[in-house]
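Model: You mentioned two targets. I'll fold them one after the other.
Researcher: Yes, keep them separate.
Model: Target one:
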Amino acid sequence: MARFRAPRHDEGLTLVEHLDELRTRIIVSIVVLGVAVSLCFWQNHLLLDALNGPLPPGRKPITLSPSEPFLATFKVSVYAGILLALPILLYEAYAFVLPALSSAERRVILPFLVLVPTLFAAGVAFGYYVVLPGALHFLLNFNSGQFNVQVRAGDYYGFVTLTLLAMGFVFQVPMGILALTKLGITTPRQLAKNRRYAYLILAIVAMALPGTDPVTMLVELVPLLLLYELSIVLARAFGAPITRQVAPQPDTRLP
């Protein structure tokens, strides 16, 4: 029988029941994602207007093929649908692994379920309101007297969505570092001691993010450094390693 509630830690499930539950979780995730993508495609004009917002006034992306408007619109709807369905997708993944978690581990993971989509949305908002305007202003005006600068729809929406997704994942740095401290792999003291090496790695990450100009790289590097410092604060406050309780072994000695 398909189940929609999360099993308890002490609830024994057979292999068939685990597979049945996995199938149910996958079906629910696909249905939710399909509904979210359909809703975004239905309201695609609002999405495209929002994505065209960072462009200079009066400028719209151009298309060079008959199929490009549909393909670009569909890709944008898929990305927006994934973002919209992210909280439910995370819950379905959490509900499937729930039987393997103790009550203490559940209390640790539950805040992650709230903070991960929240930080992802914050990263997308930062990318939209801060990174994209600065990057587009620099790129579209660079040597503009020597080029007839046009914005192709497929390339522009690909650049915008990739930048926003990258900033959403970048804002997960505190969650990743907090998870490492929870697992006992590192400590807040080590994080603070190796700060300069972390800054170097973050600078390399900023160079690898979308946007090849120095302005975009610097704009993306600043939140990375701030997020790393926030990670140290969170690790000191909530980064105590998880201690799994071990069930006592029965005494098998003969009387």
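Model: Target two:
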Amino acid sequence: MPRIRSLQLLEGARRAAGLTVVIDVFRAFSVAPLAIAAGAVRIHPVATPRDALLARKRHPDWLLIGERDGQPLPGFDFGNSPADIMAADLTGRVLVQRTSAGIQGLLAAGENSDVTDVITGSFVNARAVVDYVRSADSPVVSLVAMGWNAAEPTLDDELCAGYLAAGIRDGVLPGIDPIRDRLRSDPCGAKFFDDSRPWFKPADFDICLTPSTVDSVLGLGPAGTDGPVLSPVAA
């Protein structure tokens, strides 16, 4: 059984080691596996909105997904809404994803020489993540909860880290109902029901907290001509 390290935020991604799971429940790493399930072939993670727009200048058929402070970005095709991604036909499409927390942690972990393997984590593909980690035989597993803007801890990512840790240790995932109830009353979940912030959709809350609807694990591959690639990895 691996030694499990629980880390937080951008600094945690920089201090990770071994097989590293970068967690962003609300919403980057719920969106990413759902986009692959909707037919996308790969995702290019980028640090800034400008990087995303430059990527599309080179590849006009690529689609841009992202947010700043939770809100959709000008010139992007999608915000950070799982509901919107699930409604889209992404068959054969290449995506570029920029977010303020999950993607920043993913890129930081990818640059960390102590990290051997980087995958994304959330509830939507929790079973696949747990099975992947348990079969990987890594002596160290780092679970990095990215929080809000990679700078403030949030309960959604902390609870997901505990959920995944339990599954890695025991092979059995805990029940989701107590987690859902806690998050519904916490500010990180309540924002999805705040009419003054319509970019946080009520449907997104439910989608992000329905576990194991996607059976793929997304791993960060080496950078090529167009930068790093996030794509499904073999079990």
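Researcher: Noted. Anything on target two?
Model: The chain has one domain: 3-215.
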